[in-house]
UniProtKB/TrEMBL annotation:
InterPro entries membership: AB_hydrolase_1 (IPR000073), AB_hydrolase_fold (IPR029058)
Domain AB hydrolase-1: 106-208
Domain of life: Eukaryota
Protein name: AB hydrolase-1 domain-containing protein
SUPFAM superfamilies with a match to the protein in the record: alpha/beta-Hydrolases
Amino acid sequence: MGSNCVASTSIGCLFCCKGCSAEKVRNAFTFIPPQSSYTVEAESMEDTDNGKMVYLMEGLEGSELYRKAADASTVRWVTTRTGSRVPLVWLRREKLNPREAAATEPPLVLLHCHGNATDIGMMMGPYYELAKVLGVEVCGVEYSGYGASSGRPSSANTYADVEAAYEYLVSVGVPPKRIVAYGQSVGSGPATHLASKKQLGGAVLHSPLLSGIKVVDPKPDACCRPSCVWSCFDFYPNDRRVRQLLCPLFVMHGQRDDIIPFYHGFRLHKACPKQHRWPAYFPARAGHNDLVETDMRAYFSEVSSFLQDVRRIAEGQKVEPPSFDKPSQVRMVVKPAEAEPRQVEMAEVARLEGEEQPEVKVGPEDGRYEQLRKGNVMVPGGFADAA
């Protein structure tokens, strides 16, 4: 029996183990809510919709970077169309860079959809780094069933979560063309959904997946693959939605990713319409959770270059996707950045390179994807051979 047939059989067994519930099978692939790393303290008894983040994990509370991030942020509660109450944490320019608070042009806002096995509390350090180095604001959206949110995790709920965050930003005056959806790992699902439905300035996909079921395909181009046999279970159809994008797309994916294989990012880049396809960044030595750490300067320079084009478009300038010698427009090897100091604060990057920070996981490192590719079904206490 071929590897695709074995993997497809294992998903059938998982379907039976989950009471023949397609939703439970999807959740078994995807969602791993950790113990909440934070709570939200209301600003006052009269205003319970606004608050501040308070860390519950000792490692975060003791980190200077995370303390700075909490001081530079505000937390706003929103209610989604599915009834969940979820917090948004927003790192604002007036607190991050007071000297720029009087700038005439509004800043870009990264609407960040985090990955698995984490929450917005654990992501505060990366949020602060993105904001300080790139000169943007960052709004992190929590998922239903994660962190301090109500509700339960599901793909449908993550769509409602990110839509509620987007509607809130627009309602308080952020121009849609200055909102950039940033989806990391599983977060690529809600980010791509939003980019195919709403007006945005751009979208960034960081270690993304083609779709939920395609993650477990052992041989993606052979017959009997799980994504074909069990297409009714599929979710986060990013490979279809990137064809419907309404804004520029920038894809990043490490070529050594052993959680979501590199070809996912490569094929998403190729599937994007040419008028929205910005050059991708595919570092050869990076994996799933270390794309930033492998080469921090290259990462920030690549993201900054894309955001600079988004700014120009938001200001009414005509900007075409940069072209390269290679027809695929892929930067497999990154040359030294030529960004202006305002675009990328290299002094800030140098400081970050020298600091040890709490490790943030954004993907399932329990081996579930690899085990399912091998035909092993996850059961309480471990894995069982489905073949």
